[in-house]
């Protein structure tokens, strides 16, 4: 009697290469994964909770530090809320980038990425979809903050609507670049708690040791030295200059190039990290 041995079919994924069905296009995969993440926005409580911290910071700093507008080094003729709000846009965007890293770390820990490995899917599409979701969420979040600042505190910078929208776009691009660094960390650390701790330790000093809330000239000398080499200072100054209608090309280009470099380096590291078993 002959014995027939059944062979297990070989599953070829987009990551492994080779012949066979390679699945949908990369663009379609990115859109599907972005849509998967965006479904979380159907829950309004998530967006409300993400707005609490930046709104509290906006209220506290706009009231506690508004006397700084009368001090040395403050832009002439500007209100403190006009000085503060562009910085709130940048700092909120960079802080929100931690959500992209934490979300990816959670997917890696609960086995979602393991199921994707058995499908004809390029794992890089998961990363790009996650970053697009973070960008859309940031846009909604910062847009609501801008409306609140204008309605409640009289935010009306000299650059007008065009300058404000340019400052918003710059803040979103800076946050998008930072999100790729945190996505890269998540792909290697694969732990939500560690990701949140690392993100807080990195972002908290950068935020306060910058020109975000007070002019650099009013800081102690040692802190001035730190603020002048802090990349967040350049991003805040560029965003503030756009809102005031006085931005220089060098400041804006510097912020854009730095953010693009962070995205490229973070994306390359993330692409390698996510392929690890």
How would you describe what is shown here?
With 277 residues, the chain is mostly helical. The chain has one domain (25-275). The protein is 71% helix and 0% strand. It has 10 helices and no strands. It has helices spanning 26-38, 44-64, 80-110, 112-117, 123-153, 160-189, 192-208, 221-229, 231-244, 249-274. Helix 2 (44-64) runs antiparallel to helix 3 (80-110), helix 3 runs antiparallel to helix 5 and helix 6 packs antiparallel against helix 7 (192-208). The longest helix is centred in the middle third of the chain and has 31 residues, at 80-110. The chain is elongated. One of its GO terms (biological process) is response to antibiotic. Keywords: Antibiotic resistance, Cell membrane, Membrane, Transmembrane, Transmembrane helix, Transport. It is a multi-pass membrane protein.
Termini separation: 42 Å
Instruction: Give the biggest sheet.
Output: none
Radius of gyration: 22 Å
* Average residue-wise pLDDT: 81
Unreliable spans are: 1-14, 16-21
Question: What characteristic shape results from the CA principal axes?
Answer: elongated
Strand content bin: under 5%
Structural class: mainly alpha
Record field, number of beta strands: 0
Reading the helices and strands in chain order gives: HHHHHHHHHH
Overall structural domain count: 1
């Amino acid at each position: 009697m002959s014995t027939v041995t059944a062979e297990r079919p070989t599953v070829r994924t987009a990551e492994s290469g080779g012949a066979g069905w390679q699945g949908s296009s990369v663009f379609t995969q990115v859109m599907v994964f972005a849509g998967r993440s965006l479904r979380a926005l159907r829950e309004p409580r998530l967006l409300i909770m993400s707005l609490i911290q930046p709104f509290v910071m906006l209220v506290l700093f706009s009231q506690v530090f508004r006397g700084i507008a009368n001090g040395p080094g403050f832009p002439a003729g500007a209100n403190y809320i006009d000085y503060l709000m562009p910085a709130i846009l940048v700092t909120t965007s960079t802080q929100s980038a931690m959500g992209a890293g934490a979300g990816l770390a959670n997917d890696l820990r609960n086995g979602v990425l393991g199921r994707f490995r058995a499908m004809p899917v390029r794992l890089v599409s998961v990363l790009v979809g996650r970053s697009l979701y973070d960008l859309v969420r940031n846009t909604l979040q910062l847009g609501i903050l801008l409306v609140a600042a204008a309605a409640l505190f009289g935010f009306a910078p000299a650059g007008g609507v065009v300058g404000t929208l340019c400052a918003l776009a710059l803040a979103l691009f800076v946050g998008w670049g930072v999100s790729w660094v945190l996505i890269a960390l998540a792909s290697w650390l694969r732990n939500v708690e560690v990701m949140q701790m690392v993100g807080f330790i990195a972002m908290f000093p950068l935020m306060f040791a910058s020109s975000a809330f007070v002019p650099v000239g009013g800081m102690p000398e040692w802190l001035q030295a730190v603020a002048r080499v802090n990349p967040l200072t350049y991003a805040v100054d560029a965003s503030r200059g756009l809102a005031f209608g006085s931005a220089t090309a060098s400041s804006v280009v510097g912020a854009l190039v730095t953010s693009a470099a962070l995205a490229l380096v973070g994306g390359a590291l993330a692409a390698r990290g996510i392929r690890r078993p």
